[in-house]
Design a protein that fits this description.
alpha+beta, Arc Repressor Mutant, subunit A, 3-stranded antiparallel β-sheet, two-stranded parallel ribbon, 6 helices, 7 strands, 18% strand, globular
Length: 181
């Protein structure tokens, strides 16, 4: 589900060289609405689909979000302090995304634990589905959710599990053979 159809995006920016790859951020009038890993070409397609241009007006929120993402990758930020726009999400998806947003830097939980924290303890697979379509990666840290076997199952961003491993290692999590130690 594209969040662009539910939230009127007003500004977007491309972050070319993070340690985990290129990514894009987009904000609505309510808050950060999208953060996703992508190529420059995918960003241009996103701009077009969202009726934005490279010269769309910048605003304070997009600048603050970009700054906080930069600080995260520089090792100077462990907690994001941004309003989030979860418009268009179902109540279940919203509860899972909000529960995920509370996972502290450098910690991991399982999909089952995430489901329980969101109020649906028997919905581990469904919580995994929400993570696969997380509209605000990194800030809603789906990379901190692993399988019950501590494996790095599923990561739909470009680079897949390798990107998830880069983010977890950046946070000090030890990984070997695609498993958290």
């Amino acid at each position: 589900m594209s969040l662009a159809s539910h939230a009127r995006l007003i500004s977007a920016v491309f972050f070319k060289d993070s340690p985990a790859g290129s990514l894009a951020l987009a904000v609505s009038e309510k808050g950060l609405a999208r953060l996703f890993f992508c190529s420059r070409e995918e960003f241009i397609d996103f701009l077009s689909a969202s009726h934005l241009t490279d010269t769309s007006r910048s605003n304070d929120l997009i600048e603050i979000a970009f700054s906080q993402v930069s600080e995260y990758f520089e090792g100077r930020r462990k907690v994001f302090d941004l309003p989030l726009d979860l418009s268009g999400q179902t109540p279940f998806r919203t509860s899972v995304l909000k529960a995920c947003a509370q996972i502290p830097f450098g910690e991991i939980i399982t999909y089952g634990e995430l489901a329980a924290r969101s109020g649906s303890p028997k919905a581990a697979r469904a919580a995994g589905g929400v993570m696969a379509h997380n509209p605000i990666a990194l800030v809603i840290p789906c990379h901190r959710v692993v399988g019950s076997d501590r494996g790095l199952h599923g990561f739909s961003s470009p680079g897949g599990l390798a990107t998830k491993a880069v983010l977890l290692r950046h946070e000090g999590v030890m990984i070997e053979n695609e498993r958290v130690l």
